[in-house]
Write a structure and sequence with these properties.
The chain is mainly α. 66% of the residues lie in helices and 3% in strands.
């Protein structure tokens, strides 16, 4: 398995935007060889970009319940409890106030809702989750706490 970490000197002085694009470039090029930290960041960015692109409803449509629970756990790991709570609340709202019993239960609900219902009920969660750069302070703290997942020893 290839070592997907990068030299820390390659990212010194970069803006957060440039830093995370560099880290994500590695993640996209080597999806099967990621460290746990790289995989976590990649999952969260993929989720948030789905939200930014089409809202929380689209992001949930694109994932099964296990993947959604993984994303919620990842938000908690990086200290983004407000994001984890927003996703939990969105799932419960979509499922009629409870956690869905199965992927089929969730899919059935997603297939039955209208655009008007989504706009009336899900927009608040979109607004809580929009913009991946709101996660950068959490990502930075995670990088500091887990440098070996991202950077080669100097």
């Amino acid at each position: 398995m290839a070592d997907t970490r990068i030299p820390q000197r390659d990212v010194r002085g970069l803006s957060d935007d440039a830093l995370f694009e560099k880290l994500l470039g590695v993640a996209y090029e080597h999806q099967d060889s990621l460290t746990p930290g790289q995989a976590l960041i990649a999952r969260l960015v993929s989720f948030i970009r789905d939200v930014d692109n089409g809202g929380i409803t689209q992001a949930l449509w694109n994932r099964d319940l296990d993947e959604t629970e993984q994303v919620i756990g990842d938000f908690e790991v990086i200290g983004a409890a407000e994001h984890a709570d927003a996703v939990r609340q969105a799932v419960r709202t979509l499922a009629g106030g409870r956690w869905p019993a199965s992927d089929a239960d969730m899919e059935s609900r997603l297939e039955r809702i209208s655009i008007d219902w989504i706009e009336a009920n899900m927009t608040r969660y979109d607004e809580m989750l929009y913009f991946e750069n709101r996660l950068w302070p959490h990502f930075n703290l995670y990088l500091v706490a887990h440098p070996n997942d991202f950077f080669l020893p100097e």
